[in-house]
């Protein structure tokens, strides 16, 4: 089943955000968010009980248009036991895909697990999770968290680059603009969890996501050790009088 984008972040899926796409009038789009059926409940790990009474982990998930969990990525944790427990349960949960104008779509979002001895709170507070995993001051209490590009030894160089397709039919219609994709580069240099941060056209967003998903980078390092890093890539689509051109800015 065709989707508007292969990976669409929860932020970009709000009606207000979607209104920024060309040809989309604010308030004309109907959207249903991803629904999660918690078939099992996370529990406070026994191994963590002697040393702490609280814990936290954030995990990014990609659920496709058929409601299948196709990828999951641990972004941060205060102790590894909490990440292990969160991964255990989310792989058993059921997912009802998000939809856009009645059509199921794939989404990338983040689950924030906050553990306490009395119970576990799971939320989709994506803005909070972005803040705490990327702020060096807030990350001090975490055993593991992604780095920003300014914190690593050097900007990872792409070793496999796929240019977005730019169909001549779109170029002839004058469809042009920029697409900004945010994603993670894991310790092996693979692109993980790409999603749209900004785009002027939904068709171009699809093309950019299809391309960036196939990129491969040098493994990022910090002080010589492999790390997870968050990056963004901007693609500029220019019809160029019928000769389609796609420019890619360096990762940021």
Q: Can you describe what's shown?
A:
It is a single chain. The protein folds into two domains: 8-41 and 52-145, Fusion Protein Consisting Of Minor Coat Protein, Glycine Rich Linker, Tola, And A His Tag, Chain: A, Domain 2 (2-Layer Sandwich), CATH 3.30.1150; 151-248, TolA/TonB C-terminal domain. It has five helices and 18 strands. It has helices spanning 15-18, 80-90, 126-134, 168-172, 202-212, and strands at 8-9, 31-32, 35-37, 54-63, 69-77, 94-96, 98-100, 103-105, 107-116, 119-123, 158-160, 177-185, 191-199, 216-217, 221-222, 225-226, 229-238, 245-248. A hairpin with a 5-residue loop joins strand 12 and strand 13. The longest helix is centred in the middle third of the chain and has 11 residues, at 80-90. It is flat. It starts with 7 loop residues before the first strand and ends with a strand.
């Amino acid at each position: 089943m065709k989707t508007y984008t292969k990976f669409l972040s929860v932020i970009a899926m709000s009606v207000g955000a979607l209104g920024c796409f060309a040809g989309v009038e604010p308030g004309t789009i109907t959207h249903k968010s991803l629904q999660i059926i918690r078939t099992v409940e996370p529990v406070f790990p026994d191994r963590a009980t002697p040393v702490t009474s609280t814990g936290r982990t954030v995990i990014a998930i990609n659920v496709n248009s058929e409601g299948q969990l196709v990828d999951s990525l641990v972004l941060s944790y205060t102790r590894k036991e909490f990440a292990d427990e969160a991964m255990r349960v989310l792989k058993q949960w059921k997912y009802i895909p998000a939809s856009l104008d009645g059509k199921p779509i794939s989404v990338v979002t983040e689950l924030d697990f906050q553990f306490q001895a009395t119970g576990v709170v799971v939320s989709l507070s994506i803005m909070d999770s972005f803040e705490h995993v990327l702020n060096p001051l807030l990350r001090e209490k975490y055993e593991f968290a992604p780095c920003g590009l300014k914190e690593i030894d050097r900007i990872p160089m792409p070793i496999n680059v796929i240019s977005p397709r730019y169909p001549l039919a779109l170029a002839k219609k004058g469809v042009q603009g920029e697409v900004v994709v945010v994603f993670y580069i894991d310790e092996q240099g693979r692109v993980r969890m790409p999603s749209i941060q900004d785009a002027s056209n939904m068709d171009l967003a699809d093309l950019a996501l299809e391309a960036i998903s196939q990129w491969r980078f040098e493994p990022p390092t910090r002080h010589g050790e492999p790390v997870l890093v968050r990056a963004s890539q901007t693609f500029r689509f220019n019809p160029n009088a019928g000769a389609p051109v796609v420019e890619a800015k360096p990762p940021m």
